Amino acid sequence: MFRRDYLLRMVEEMTDMIGKAFDLKQKKKHIEALWELDEWMKRHFRLNSQLLNSLPTEDIIDLFRIGNGVEVDKVQQVARILEEEGEIYEDQGLTDISLIRYMKALHLYLYSMLNGANRDILQAPERIQQLCVKVKGYELPDKTERLLALYSEEVGRYAEAENSWYRLVEREEHYKEEAREFYLRLLEQDDAKLEQGGLPHHEVEEGLHHLQERFSRS
């Protein structure tokens, strides 16, 4: 109970701070908006934007590792800060800088959701969808694309998951076994659920057949 109350207070503080940053962004005070985000990170996590954006996503996650576990609710808060930074840079027309932050934020949100983070405190599922729209047309890092495939399957968006596995297999053949396992898992689902997920039973069978045929030839 104490941990949950602490988390909620922290999220409330972050929400207020992001509101201030948003107002500053609206007034075109971009440096001040970024400063608000950075100060919050320093105060709560003893981190700053420069460090976060110099680290790979795996190393950011490791910063929140305790024993065998990861404080995934804190990881998704970092994702929220990176997402907001991306918005501020996008507002300045700095697309390349904002895109890097969006991709990092997406990876951290996906990791958090797949590892038991609270889905409600930051509306992470909705934020993931919004970030997917923002990075559409750009190639995600393989590790992020893989998390997106697993997450899409978990939430029942099977057609989107298949698209991710297809992109991964096109880039690297070693993803073929995970892609095959994906199709096999879907074959255990009932037809109504597959239809709802955008991938009817016959398309699952076709996808598996094409995958196996392709790699039997190679």
Characterise the protein shown here.
It is a single chain. 76% of the residues lie in helices and 2% in strands. With 218 residues, it is mainly alpha-helical. A two-stranded antiparallel ribbon has the order 1-2.
Output the radius of gyration: 19 Å
User: What is the percentage of strand-forming residues?
Assistant: under 5%
Can you list the strand order of the major beta sheet? Answer: 1-2
| Strand-pairing-aware structural class | mainly alpha
SS summary, helix count: 12
- The geometry reads as elongated
What is the distance, rounded to the nearest whole angstrom, between the alpha carbons of the first and last residues?
A: 55 Å
Q: How would you characterize the largest beta sheet?
A: 2 strands, antiparallel
Low-confidence stretches: none
How many runs of DSSP E, i.e. beta strands? 2
User: What is the residue-averaged pLDDT?
Assistant: 93
- Helix content range: over 70%
- Element order: H for helix, E for strand: HHHHEEHHHHHHHH
